[in-house]
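Q&A log
Question type: sequence-to-structure
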Amino acid sequence: MDLIQSYDGEAVSSSPDSSPPGIITRLWPKTKCIETIVTGIMSQHIPALDYYSNKLPLVSKVYASSEAFYGLNLNPLSKPQHVSYTFLPNMSYFEFIRVDADGEDTSEIVDLVDVTLGHYYEPLVTNYSGRTMSQHIPALDYYSNELPLVSKVYASSEAFFGINVNPLSKPQHVSYTFLPNMSYFEFIEVDDDGETTGEIVDLVNVNTGTSSGEKKIFPANDNFEDILLGLALSSLIMSKHVDGYKQGKVMIFKFIQPISTTPCGLPLAPSITIIMKSKNYRSPGKRSTTPDEIIMCTDPKQSMYCQLLCGLVQRDEVVSVGALFASVLVQIIRILEKYWKELCSNIRSGRLSDWITDHCCRDSVSIILGEPNPELADLIENECGQESWQGIVSRLWPKTKCVETIVTGIMAQYIPALEFYSDKLPIVSSIYGSSETFFGLNVNPLCKPQHVSYTFLPNMSYFEFIHVDADGEATGEIVDLVDVKLGAYYEPLVTNYSGSLYRCRVGDVLHVTGFYNNAPQFRFVRRKNTVLSIFVESTTEEDVLKALDRATVVLESSDLMLTGFTCFGDVSTVPGHYVFYLELKAKVNNDTNVLLLDEKVLVEYCCVMEESLSSFYRSLRRKDGPIGPLEVRVVQQGTFDSLMEFFVTRGASITQYKTPMCINSAETLKVLEDKVLARFFSDKSPPT
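Response status: OK
Response body:
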C-alpha cells in the first residue's frame, strides 16, 4: 500500500519530478573531494553524501577529540570503510586498554609501541596541555615504516611467567622460556579435547548474553548450588521485616527452560533451571500457591496460565506476589487482562481449559481447583470488569503485603506500572545475582526502589573490583572487596568456586553506598556498553549501526535515503519494544513538499532491522515474548535540525554536536514526537 503524506501530516496526491543526484558537483563543478569525518557513527551519512556529491571521494583526514589530537589519515583517498589513522606520538602520551571484539575491557594496558596487529584497544591519554606537563614530554621516536611484531614477555595478573629469547621470530612461532625464580609453577596435563582439573564439572550454565548480546556458557559443579544459601537468607530477611510474611502463601511466578546437552553429554541450562532442578533445591511446598509440577512445565504459556489460576483460587492466603524481573511481572498482568474471563469460567465450572495439554499441569490444577466455585468467579469478574485496573493486585489478593521483584537497573522503568497495578504496595528487590555468581542481599527490603543497595556475601565468590569513573569507563585499577571506597564506582570481577576458578568480568557498574558491619553495600547503576535494553538483552551502538547498514538496502529500493535517526526503548506498551525515529528524504524531489511512503517497504525495513540484531534479542522477540515488534516512526524533514537546536540552546557546541544514538529524556522525545508523520511495525518474529 502506498501512503503519500505531506510534512504537516496531511495526506495528498503527488507526481514527483525527476531530479538527478550530484547537486554538489553541479553547483561546484571543480570540486575534487568532500572533506568531513565519516567514521564511527558518522558513517550513516555516507549514502546521503554519495548521492549529493555524485560519489566524489569522501576524505576523513584527522582523528581527534577534546582530550587530544591523535593522528592523520595518510591515505586520504581510501574508501571510508578502509580509513585508518596513523598516530602522532608527540601529541600526547598514549596508552591503550586491550578490549575484546565486543568492546569489553581486559584490563591489560600497553604503550603505543606495544600494540599488536589485529587487536582492539581503547586509548588512554595523558595530554601535555596542562600546567607543567610540557616539561615532562617523553622522548619518542616516530616510525612510519612497518615494524616487526615483538612478543617480549608472557605474564598475567597472577604471575610473570617468562620471556621470548627470540623476539624477532614470527608471531605464530613464539615460545616463552619460563623463569623458575618468579613463582612456584605446577602444571596440569590436558588433552586435545579440553582441560583436566581437580574439580569435576557436572553441568554447564548458560547466561542471558547481557554483555554482548550473545549467550555465554560457564562450566559448573555442585558449588554452584551455594546460591541456595543466599535465597534462604533472603527469605529470613523478608520474615524479619514484613509482618505476617510467614503466615500466608507466596505467589512467585517461576519458569524453567528445557535442558539441552553439550557435545560431551553435560547438561546445559540457565541458572534458574539448574537451581530448580537441583537435588538440593528445597521446594516452598505449602508456602507457595504453585505446585512444583506446574513450574516444571517447559511451555511458558501453559505454566503462566496455570500459576495464575492457582493463585486466584487461593487469593485469600496470598501475602506476597512476585517474579524474578519486573518486566516478567508486568507481562503476567497483561496475560491476566487477556484471559481473566476464561480463568473465571474455569473457576465457575471447576474444570481447566482444554488447551492446557500438559498432564502434570492438569493433574496439579485439578486438585487445587476442586469443586465449582461460582461465588469466587463472580468476585473476580467484578474486580477485573471495572473500568480501571489501578490496584488490581491488591484487589484480587487483598492480604498481599508486598511485591517481590527486581526493579534495579533497567528494570526501574517498570516501577510506575507496578505501583499502578499494586496500589503502591512496597516493591522489594531482595537479591543481586547473575549467571556468574550470587553477589548479595538487600538487608533493608522495604526501602524505596531507588534506594536499594545490596550487601555482598564474601563467601559466595572471590570478588575483585575494577575502578571505573562515573561514566563507567575503566581506570585499570583493580582492588579487593575489603579495599573498595565509599562513593566510588566499580565493575565486579568474579572468580567463582563452581567451575574451576574461572575469572569473569560481569559488565555491571556499581556504586559503593555504605557498609553493613564490614561488608560493602553496592547500588546497581547500569550495564556497560548498552544503548538499548527492554528486558535483559543488551544492544550496543555497534549492533544498531550494523542493523541500520543492512536495512539501508531496503530504503534504496524505494529511492529513499536516511538523513538522521535516533532510538529509544518504549516501555509504555506491554511488552516494551524498540522505537527508531527516522528522517527520510526522497532521492527524487518534487514541488508539492510531500514524501511517498510505501508501507510494504518500511515494514520490511523493520523486519530487516530485527533480523540484524543479536541472537538473544531475536529469541526474546518470539510470539508472546518479553519484547514487542520493532517500530519505525518517520519524522518530518528538518526534525533533526530542530533536535540539534534543542541541544544547542542548552549549551551544546554546533561544531562538536552529534545526534544522540539513544534518547531517554521525555523532554527530548517530545521534540521528535511532535514531528512524527507515520508509524510502521515489524509484522513477523525474526528467525532465531
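Response note: The mean pLDDT is 80.
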